[in-house]
Amino acid sequence: MIAITDPRIEEYLMRLAPEEDPYVQEMEQLARERRFPIVDRLVGRLLYLLTRLRQPQLVVELGSGFGYSTWWFARAISITGKVVMTDHDQENIDYARRIFQETGLADRIEFRVGNALTIGRDYDNIDLLFIDVDKQDYRQAAEIMLPRLAKNALIIADNALWYGRVAEGNDDPETRGIAEFNRFMFARRDFFTTILPLRDGVLLSYKYG
Ligand SMILES: C[S@@+](CC[C@H](N)C(=O)[O-])C[C@H]1O[C@@H](n2cnc3c(N)ncnc32)[C@H](O)[C@@H]1O
């Protein structure tokens, strides 16, 4: 496994970004207790920033867990916008619903339980697509969702460096899934794609026109 960022840099970045919101703290604590993979605070801040810049009316999230990444989108989106959160675990969605009701953000969110790759087909004109499902499904998720994107849409995909395994050329299904997805997105001439080596790598792709 290759360290994408030196741990000292990660610690430094985290020190720069303390979080006082009790709900963020609660969700981060829950993730630690359950060893549940969330995007983490620095990527969360990136989601927030990109949402503020792009000002989407519709965000579709494939693989929302218990709503940590959703929280950053929901905080940043305008009151007329909507975030669709998807997870196949009912318990995760119930937890998220409670958090968003308590924080007054529930009106901006559609809570969907089931296979994100099926649910995603219900939406068109998506301004911002976030991909964080099982890694072997990234390429298929892109193929299903690309025709559903709005003009100048933005795709954000987490784990684009998959703990460095893509660079090592590992041959397990998850690494292959991410590597194929990265190749697929970089090869598209109708998108402009890059990867930020932040935490586990974040792929960003802008749709021309
Ligand atoms: C990495 S976690 C998501 C974490 C979340 N995006 C965050 O950062 O807070 C992936 C989640 O997606 C769910 N998941 C994976 N593949 C899925 C699929 N095809 N449909 C629905 N949920 C899926 C898993 O159950 C898990 O809760």
TrEMBL record:
<dbReference type="GO" id="GO:0032259">
    <property type="term" value="P:methylation"/>
</dbReference>
<keyword id="KW-0489">Methyltransferase</keyword>
<dbReference type="InterPro" id="IPR029063">
    <property type="entry name" value="SAM-dependent_MTases_sf"/>
</dbReference>
<dbReference type="GO" id="GO:0008168">
    <property type="term" value="F:methyltransferase activity"/>
</dbReference>
<keyword id="KW-0949">S-adenosyl-L-methionine</keyword>
<protein>
    <submittedName>
        <fullName>SAM-dependent methyltransferase</fullName>
    </submittedName>
</protein>
<keyword id="KW-0808">Transferase</keyword>
<dbReference type="InterPro" id="IPR002935">
    <property type="entry name" value="SAM_O-MeTrfase"/>
</dbReference>
<dbReference type="Pfam" id="PF01596">
    <property type="entry name" value="Methyltransf_3"/>
</dbReference>
